[in-house]
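Record 1 of the preview.
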Amino acid sequence: MKLIHLSDLHLGKRVNEFSMVEDQKYILNEILKIIDQESPDGILLAGDLYDRPVPSAEAVQLFDSFLTRLAQRKIPVFAISGNHDSAERIAFGSHIMSDSGICMSPVYDGKTAKYCLKDSYGEVWIHLLPFIRPATVRHALEGEEDVEDIRTYQEAVLAAVKHMEIDRSQRNVLLAHQFVVGAMQCDSEEISVGGIDQIEAEVFRDFDYVALGHIHSPQNVGSPKIRYCGTPLKYSFSEAGQQKSVSVVELGEKGSPDVREIPLTPLRDMRKLKGTYMELTSQSNYKDTNTDDYVQITLTDEEDIVDGMQKLRTIYPNLMRLDYDNRRTRENQEIAGTERTTQKSEMEYFEEFFELQNNQPMNEEQRKFSEELIRKLQEV
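->
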């Protein structure tokens, strides 16, 4: 049984006010090429299909096109809602779509949907657990014993799993969208204060493979059978060094699955650049690179470049962020309150202030400009 594990498409996402829809359309086409090459028995979409509970029209159209092309290939699709999705919107039309092999998770009501696939080794059961919170589970299981004691995500997911119909003699695959303890995070993820959303991997012990969504870095958690496949695209500069991929899961006889990654190449990469303004604008520095990539630039010049963002965008049109790394930014000197000092001139006071703020003294050009400005102010 071969399954392709995807998650966190975040369709419609904007990064630093840049729309990612064109990049998402491109990467979905690349994923379809991989699907055609691999000929899987099913596609697992583990939540955060959209970036917002009320997605944009172009995001909905993009997902509709992706599902339609999968349905045309007669490949079953199993999808759940994530914390960025509206569970009700993802569940809309699920009964009708299931006739075409598109199986969307219903809103959690105490029970979870499950579907059966078969191969030469027998049955494989696909269980769909949408993203849940403690309040969701308390409401769904209202009236049951000790249900009001469910206060943590650990207790909520444990209760949901206990209410699943799991035949442990068969192979069982779970789709879930939760934060499992031990997973490495990125800046583009939503993090709950104090880690209250964390759950233990032990909760999933009865499953042969757990296709997780929510964490954006591809990784196993605790064992090869519990896995985050990561996002198909980079959504923050903390992911700049990552290789995004598609996870291909092969289930033989009951036991540990075989998982491999197929790299994804984006339309535009996300990179970090560092150096002086002259270095980064030198043609020899960028001539063999894709200057259309999304970039974060850190300038090491001691003086800020006037209109630096706009000037750099003539070479790097998708510059998302501009920072400085110099004496001024490396040292955070505190400008203290007023003290009684000997009488000083306006220029002397301003020079002291400038040095405290910038961690370096004025140069001769700055001093002459400041002296002229102070002289004109005194004349007013």
